[in-house]
Amino acid sequence: MFHKEGGKIILIATSVTVVIFLLSHQLTSILWLEKAIQIATLVFLLLILQFFRNPNRRIEANDNIVTAPVDGKVVVIEEVFEEEYFKDKRLQVSIFMSPINVHVTRYPVSGKVKYSKYHPGKYLVAWHPKASTENERTTIVIENRIFGEILYRQIAGALARRIVNYAEEGMQVRQGDDAGFIKFGSRVDIYFPLGTKIEVSLQQNAVGNQTVIAIKE
What we know:
The chain is an alpha+beta fold. Helix content is about 20%, strand content about 35%. It has 2 domains: about 50 residues; about 150 residues, Glucose Permease (Domain IIA). The longest helix is centred in the N-terminal third of the chain and has 21 residues.
C-alpha cells in the first residue's frame, strides 16, 4: 500500500521506467550497458516505491499513551524552552527519519487540534540543533484529555522539500490516523509537559503507531 502523496511521483517514475526499458536497446548497442541502464532505472523505481510505502498499522486509540508519529531513530531527549506556542520549558523528544524510513506522519494522540501553523525556512540537515526553529516546518498542537496539550513539529531536512500537514485548527483527530507526510528525509519533534514519563531511549528505533513514546499511569 502506498501513500496518496506519492501517487503522481509513482506514476511518473513508472512511466519513465517503462519507456527506458522499451528504448534502452536503441540507446546503446553494448549489451552490458543496456542492462546497466535497465537495472539502474529499476532500482530508482524501487526506491520511489519504498519511500512512499504506507504500512497498515491501525491501532485502538488510548489516551494514556503517546505513540510515535513517525518511523525513525530517537536522536533527542532533553528539556528545552519551546518558544513558539508554550513559551516555557518542555521535554522534547525528536525522531530522525532517513530516506529509507516510512515518512507517513500519524497523530500521536487523540483530541482537538488547537494550533496548526506552517513556517517557511531553511533546509539544514534534520539533526542540526537549529533545524527545529530555522528549517521549513509545521507546528501542530493537540489537546488530549489525559496529557493536556501535546505539540509535535514536522521539520524538513536537507533533502525534504515539501511538508504535507492535514491538521487544521478545530478538528477532532484520532490517535494513529494519517496526519501528513514529509518528502525525502526529515525529523519530527514532540513536546511534553515536564515530568512526563518517557518510554524511549536515545538511539532507539521508533515505529510509527507502535512505539510508545510517553505514558500516563
